[in-house]
Input
Amino acid sequence: MNKDQIEAFGDLVSRADRILIISHIRPDGDAVGSTLGLGLILEELGKDVSLVLEDGVPKVFNHLTGSDRIIREAIGVFDLVIVVDCSDIERIGSVLDEFGEPDVNIDHHPTNTHFAKLNLVRDDAVATAEIIFDLAQELAFPLNLPIAEALLTGLLTDSLGFRTSNSNPQTLRIAAELMEIGANLPFLYRKAMLEKSIQAVKYWGQGLSRIQMEDRLVWTSLTLEDRIAADYPGRDDADLINVLARIKETDISIVFVEQKNGSVKVSWRSRPGFDVSSIATQFGGGGHKPAAGADIKGDLDRVQKEVLEATRKSLQKSE
Ligand code: AMP
Ligand code: MN
Ligand code: MN
Output
């Protein structure tokens, strides 16, 4: 992301009135925080802003001011379409089907496919929220408390509370600036990262009861039946992957989540020295070296078999 691109983004924003901002399916804290943070900034600039996430806002982010502004469908005509925190166009879902090529893509995934007309992609950023913060500084866009809360949520959740290996002094400087605007870090941390519903923990229980380990690899699955048994409302893994990733005897952990449409959502996590994004891209997914994911067509057993095979191969190569 260079100066010209930042300027080009500033020009696009100043010329637009109706702006659509969208992010990826099964949104995480960075998807919600970046969509909302940028949306509220542009609204402060007097723009008519639509915020759309195909899967809506997960309940754990309901405390964010303005989260009720995020709807599930893009309705109307827009002068500018911005996609945030999304490495490839498929991961948006079907929101953009009628709108064609997006204008701007703001993202931090090394696997980003540069699918928009203007691609503001910086893989050194811990979160897309960090890039949005930097853009706001560069372009003298306004920040206020709800914006700071949204951006800090993105920063916190993607860095797992500043403990991913890419967390650095600048991450903490930005967090400090957002706190100075008034964002309550302990509160946001507790809401977005610590608190779990009883359904989510029961859902974890289903997955944990079937956990498997082989050499330095650990995995489990969550079926549609598990979701019903636990009465869990989401179609994600309720962050079970980050529970598995804490098992110290492993290098790579995987969670398979069965989906209603005959596909499986796979999440990988790895220790430093292992690159799971290269495995995820083999299956049409993406992500970062230590954290990657893919949506793979096929039934749970077959996907599990193929993914485990590819992951074992990758582990052998890394040894
Ligand atoms: P997750 O396992 O969903 O927590 O995602 C881990 C990382 O992989 C995040 O950086 C995601 O943005 C990325 N990721 C997850 N699923 C996909 C996908 N289907 N395609 C591309 N990237 C993905
Ligand atoms: Mn994300
Ligand atoms: Mn992100």
In short: The chain has a mean pLDDT of 96.
